[in-house]
Each structure stands twice: as structure tokens, then as C-alpha cells.
Design brief:
Its main location: mitochondrion. This protein has 368 residues and is mainly beta. It contains 4 helices and 24 strands. 9% of the residues lie in helices and 47% in strands.
Length: 368
């Protein structure tokens, strides 16, 4: 068995990562420091830290962050597991897992192509498959480097006061799929810089990983479970652009003698090809159980028109939708532009907007 399992360069903003994972002959060191585009791949993962003074030119220093572990093919990562995000490159720590149902229309399409269907018609049935995601904290030192590729304040809640549209966010909180986790170990007792790290986790060198959940983390998870829970994930690929959607129910508010139900949805766009494309437009169709159908068109998403390339293949963002009904559906398309000026539409997989049956008051802040 070859010692080197994988070696790959990952570009994240102005930061470049190069990794080498070893399976049979032990692990390699993971270093953090700084990088500009074109930073040469190495056996270790590197970032760059610039040092400057009046009498000395700027230089680079490599710091050892930790040691890579072999990614788990089976089983789940435990609370306190340190990791590097395989796509966005940030350092993080696992808080707790979620078991979601993944509805992959690409798998359904492959299955329908194999089935005998002479007429070539009929809708494809999408069956959900259990998939593990993790609630994680992002290292604050890495947030500036990923802000152009992934929102670092994407997990939002309804504020509990008179303004029915007011939202607040917990910075540096994210959801990560199992396959995006590149685990590593560290001898640092506080390896992740986040204001909640030491509130949620306690260092215990007798454990593996050596960070265990404090009671505050368990209490916070239980208190905010309805508004954090990840249950359904929807995925579809069109012309090598994969769209993944995760909807979250946020709660209900009363406004002008009516009930308004809120959802947050997180979308990840991934370019699976080497050709450069740019997102130009979005086109949404939003159906409410009350019988209304709304069409929304606009330039880009969240004020941006991201470019997806081989070096920076992914973009992730969150947005919100409200309905005057307890459930509904959303679907649509993203329009992309090729370098030659031609356009093509990418399908957004349809997904349901469902409210919790046991309605509770959404959180008004961090509950401990």
C-alpha cells in the first residue's frame, strides 16, 4: 500500500493549501502560514505569516499546527475533533454530529437511465440516504481568507423582539459534510481561536480527541436544537455544476395579525469541471401552501457573482425566505456564463419548506 494516500493543492481566497496524508507509515505534520497564488506544493500543509519591521524585510515563517490523521471511511468523528476543511481550507473543531437525509437527484438519474423506459418519460424518484454532517466552529484566524468563498456568519436566528424581520448570527458556526473533514491532532490546548471554544470544550489529555464537551455545550445544543437541526439535504448536478441545498426552519412570528414562517437555506455551488464559469443570475419559484406562487429573478446571489474555477471551485452562501403559511416548496435555476460569453442554466433541486409541528419560541440569543 502506498504511503501517500492523497496530495492536492487547495486555493482558498489568497491562501493555498497543499496536503499529504499518509496511511501506512504514520502521519505528516500540518503547518500553518501564508500563501499567495502560485505557492509551491509541499509535503506539509502551509499558510503564510508575514513578519515586518523597520529594519527587516518581510519574511515567511512556517508554524506547525498539528499532524494529519487518516480520514474515517466509516463511523463518525467525535466531539472535539480538529479538522481542515477539504474545500474551503479553514481550521475547525467538531461540536456534534447531525444525521441528515440526503436526496441526491444525480443518483436517481443514474438509476433511471439503467431502468427500462422505452418512452424516456416519467419523473425520477429521489430516495433519501442517511448522511452525516457536523456542527463546527471555524477558527477566527481563517475567516478573512474564506470570506469571498463562504459566509462565516451563515447560521442565523430570529431575534426575539418586536421587529419580525430581525435576524442575528453566530459568527464562525458552520455545517460540514463528513467527506469534507480532514482530521488532524494538535498538542495545543487551545488550537482553535473562537470565542465559544473554551466555553464549549474542555482539554483532557486522557481522551482522544483531547477535547471533551462541557455542560454548556450540551445545554446549548438541547436548548437550540429545533433551530440548529439539519434534517434534509438536496443535491443535483447540471453540466458539471453541482448545487447542494440545505433548508432550516427558523420559527414563526406574528406580523400585522398574521403568522409569518421563516426558513434559512444554505446553498453550495461546486464546479466539477476545469472550465471557468461565472454565476450571473438567479431565478426562483416559491410556492406557499396558501396557494401563492412567487417568482424571483435577480443578478448573482447575496450581492455577488462568483467565479468558479479549477483553483477555486466552490462558493457557499445562505439566504432566507418567509411565507404566510406553515409549509411550501422552492426550486429554480442559476444562470452561468462561460468565457466565450455563452450561457447555460443550472437546476436548483426542489426542496420542501416545512415548519416544526411542536412550535416553540425561537431563541433570542445564546442560551447556556
Amino acid at each position: 500500500m502506498a504511503a501517500c494516500v492523497a496530495r492536492r493543492a487547495l486555493a482558498v481566497g489568497s491562501r493555498w493549501w497543499s496536503r499529504s496524508l499518509t496511511a501506512a507509515r504514520g502521519s505528516r505534520p500540518l503547518c500553518a502560514a501564508g500563501g499567495a497564488p502560485g505557492f509551491p506544493p509541499a509535503a506539509t500543509t502551509t499558510t503564510q505569516r508575514h513578519l515586518s519591521s523597520r529594519n527587516r524585510a518581510e519574511g515567511k515563517v512556517l508554524e506547525t499546527v498539528g499532524v494529519f490523521e487518516v480520514p474515517k471511511q466509516n463511523g463518525k468523528y467525535e466531539t472535539g475533533q480538529l479538522f481542515l476543511h477539504s474545500v474551503f481550507g479553514y481550521r475547525g473543531v467538531v461540536l456534534f454530529p447531525w444525521q441528515a437525509r440526503l436526496y441526491d437527484r444525480d443518483v436517481a438519474s443514474a438509476a433511471s437511465e439503467k431502468a427500462e423506459n422505452p418512452a424516456g418519460h416519467g419523473s425520477k424518484e429521489v430516495k433519501g440516504k442517511t448522511h452525516t454532517y457536523y456542527q463546527v466552529l471555524i477558527d477566527a484566524r481563517d475567516c478573512p481568507h474564506i470570506s469571498q468563498r463562504s459566509q462565516t456568519e451563515a447560521v442565523t436566528f430570529l431575534a426575539n423582539h418586536d421587529d419580525s424581520r430581525a435576524l442575528y448570527a453566530i459568527p464562525g458556526l458552520d455545517y460540514v459534510s463528513h467527506e469534507d473533514i480532514l482530521p488532524y491532532t494538535s498538542t495545543d490546548q487551545v488550537p482553535i481561536q473562537h470565542e465559544l471554544f473554551e466555553r464549549f470544550l474542555l482539554y483532557d489529555q486522557t481522551k482522544a480527541p483531547p477535547f471533551v464537551a462541557r455542560e454548556t455545550l450540551r445545554a446549548w445544543q438541547e436548548k437550540n436544537h429545533p433551530w440548529l437541526e439539519l434534517s434534509d439535504v438536496h443535491r443535483e448536478t447540471t453540466e458539471n455544476i453541482r448545487v447542494t441545498v440545505i433548508p432550516f426552519y427558523m420559527g414563526m412570528r406574528e406580523a400585522q395579525n398574521s403568522h409569518v414562517y421563516w426558513w434559512r437555506y444554505c446553498i453550495r455551488l461546486e464546479n466539477l469541471d476545469s472550465d471557468v464559469v461565472q454565476l450571473r443570475e438567479r431565478h426562483w419559484r416559491i410556492f406557499s401552501l396558501s396557494g401563492t406562487l412567487e417568482t424571483v429573478r435577480g443578478r448573482g446571489v447575496v450581492g455577488r457573482e462568483p467565479v468558479l474555477s479549477k483553483e477555486q471551485p466552490a462558493f457557499q452562501y445562505s439566504s432566507h425566505v418567509s411565507l404566510q403559511a406553515s409549509s411550501g416548496h422552492m426550486w429554480g435555476t442559476f444562470r452561468f456564463e462561460r468565457p466565450d460569453g455563452s450561457h447555460f442554466d443550472v437546476r436548483i433541486p426542489p426542496f420542501s419548506l416545512e415548519s416544526n409541528k411542536d412550535e416553540k419560541t425561537p431563541p433570542s440569543g445564546l442560551h447556556w
